[in-house]
Specification:
By secondary structure, this protein is mostly helical. The chain contains 17 helices and two strands. It is about 60% helix and about 0% strand. The chain has a two-stranded antiparallel sheet.
C-alpha cells in the first residue's frame, strides 16, 4: 500500500532534494490536475463562432493530443512523467544504498513498486466500469511495466546504458517494420478497428504501413494479451491507438531520465551539468525530428515510436535544464513554491485528478450555485455574465485549486505519500 511519511521534515527535503525536479514534477501535475486549465474546451467553444482565429487554433492544438503525427505541450505530459521517474531513481536508490540496503532488497522494492503502480492504474481506469478494466496503456501501468528493467540499468556505465537504449529503439523499429500484416487501405480506412476512411486519408496518407493506427504489431500483441483477462466483451482495439508494448520504447525515455539524474548527482560543476542537459536536449530534438521528416520513423506519441522517444526526451532535457538553471543554480525559488507543493505529493494529486474532478465540480456547484462556473459578473457590479465559452477554464481552475489546497495542507503537515 502507499506509504504516508509523517516524520519527514520539510527542511530536510529542501536540503536533500533536487528542487528543480520537484518544480518540474509540479508543473506537469498542475497541468494535469487543472485539466490543462480547460483551455482545449475553451478554445473549441471559441472556434465554433471564430473558426479562423489563429490564436484559438494554436491554443487548441497545444492543449490537445496530436491526432497521430506531431507534438503539442499536452503530448509532453506522459514523457515528462516517465523521464522524471528515471531522474528520481538516480536519487532514491542511491540513498537506499547509502543506508546499507542490499541489491536484492532494492530490486525487490523496485518490483513491488512496479506492481503497485500497475494495480493503481487498473484501479483508476476501472472507476466508471461495471467490472475491472484490464488494460495497461495508462501512464502508471506503463511506468510499472518498465520499472524493474530500469532498475537493472541503474548504476551501469553510460556506455552500457547508451547501448541498451540503442538496442531497445532499434529492436522496436525492427518489430514494427518486419511485422507482416501491418497497415490499412488508406482510401477505404479500417472501420473495424476504429479508423475511418476520412481520418486515414487526413492523417496516414504519408505514413508507411508499419506505423498505421491499429494495424501493427502492437495491436496484435494486445489482441492476444488483453483477451486473456475476463472482460464484458472481447478487446478489439484501443480507440486512441495506444498499446501495451509502448512501455518498451518508453523505457528509453525513463533511462535517459536516469542518466540525467546520475549526472546531476555528480560533483561536476553546475555549468558542466547544464551544458550536458542542453546538448542532450537538442540532440534528441534534432535526431527525432530528422527521423520524422525523412519518413524513416514518424513522430507518433500514441505508438511511442523511436523518433518520438528521442524527440520527447529532448524536450524533457531542455525543460529540466531550464528549471535547473533557474531553481538550483540561480537559486530563484520563491516562484516555484506552488509547483513544489504539488510536486512533493504527485501521487496524491494524480489520484484526485483521475477520480475526483467531476465530483469536486458538482460539490462546488451544490454549495456555491449552479452558475458558479459562469462567474456571474453581478458579483463585480456588472449586469451580464462572463461569456459561457470560458466556463471550462473557470471550472478547471476552481477544481484544480481545491486539489492544490489539499496538497498544501499535506505539505504544511509534512504528509508525503510515496509508493
Amino acid at each position: 500500500m502507499p506509504r504516508v511519511n509523517v516524520k519527514a521534515d520539510v527542511g530536510d527535503f529542501k536540503h536533500e532534494r533536487l528542487q528543480s525536479l520537484d518544480a518540474y514534477r509540479g508543473l506537469i501535475m498542475v497541468s494535469l490536475a487543472f485539466a490543462g486549465f480547460g483551455l482545449a474546451k475553451t478554445a473549441s467553444n471559441h472556434l465554433v463562432y471564430q473558426p479562423d482565429s489563429e490564436i484559438w487554433q494554436h491554443v487548441h492544438e497545444q492543449f490537445s493530443h496530436a491526432e497521430w503525427v506531431g507534438c503539442s505541450y499536452w503530448d509532453l505530459i506522459q514523457p515528462s512523467f516517465m523521464f522524471m521517474v528515471g531522474v528520481s531513481m538516480a536519487y532514491s536508490y542511491s540513498k537506499r544504498q547509502e543506508l546499507g540496503h542490499s541489491y536484492p532488497r532494492m530490486f525487490g522494492h523496485a518490483f513491488k513498486r512496479a506492481l503497485l503502480l500497475i494495480a493503481l492504474s487498473v484501479f483508476l481506469m476501472s472507476k466508471s466500469r461495471s467490472q475491472t478494466d484490464w488494460s495497461f496503456m495508462n501512464v502508471l501501468a506503463q511506468i510499472g511495466l518498465a520499472y524493474p528493467f530500469l532498475f537493472l540499468l541503474w548504476r551501469r556505465s553510460v556506455v552500457t546504458q547508451s547501448i541498451a537504449a540503442a538496442v531497445i529503439l532499434l529492436g522496436t523499429s525492427a518489430a514494427y517494420e518486419f511485422y507482416p500484416d501491418a497497415g490499412i487501405d488508406i482510401q477505404a480506412g479500417a472501420p473495424e478497428v476504429g479508423v475511418t476512411a476520412e481520418w486515414s486519408q487526413k492523417h496516414l496518407d504519408d505514413i508507411r504501413p508499419p506505423w498505421h493506427k491499429n494495424a501493427n504489431i502492437g495491436l496484435a500483441v494486445d489482441l492476444d494479451l488483453l483477451n486473456r483477462f475476463e472482460r464484458p466483451k472481447p478487446f478489439v482495439f484501443n480507440s486512441g491507438g495506444y498499446q501495451t508494448i509502448n512501455f518498451i520504447p518508453s523505457l528509453v525515455t525513463m533511462l535517459f531520465g536516469l542518466m540525467c539524474g546520475e549526472l546531476l548527482r555528480t560533483n561536476r560543476t553546475a555549468g558542466h551539468k547544464l551544458a550536458a542537459l542542453l546538448v542532450a536536449g537538442f540532440f534528441g530534438l534534432g535526431v527525432g525530428y530528422l527521423l520524422n521528416i525523412s519518413g524513416a520513423c514518424p513522430l507518433v506519441k500514441r505508438l511511442w515510436t523511436p523518433s518520438w522517444a528521442l524527440f520527447s526526451t529532448g524536450c524533457c532535457c531542455l525543460i529540466l535544464g531550464g528549471l535547473y538553471l533557474v531553481v538550483d543554480v540561480m537559486k530563484l525559488r520563491r516562484w516555484s513554491f506552488p509547483l513544489v507543493v504539488v510536486g512533493m505529493n504527485s501521487i496524491a494529486i494524480y489520484c484526485m485528478s483521475m477520480s475526483l474532478k467531476s465530483w469536486t465540480a458538482k460539490q462546488l456547484q451544490t454549495h456555491f450555485g449552479q452558475d458558479l462556473f459562469l462567474l456571474k459578473t453581478s458579483w463585480f457590479d456588472y449586469s451580464s455574465q462572463v461569456d459561457a465559452a470560458y466556463s471550462p477554464t473557470v471550472q478547471s481552475v476552481m477544481v484544480g485549486l481545491v486539489f492544490w489546497l489539499v496538497c498544501f495542507y499535506m505539505y504544511r503537515n509534512k504528509l508525503f505519500i510515496r509508493l
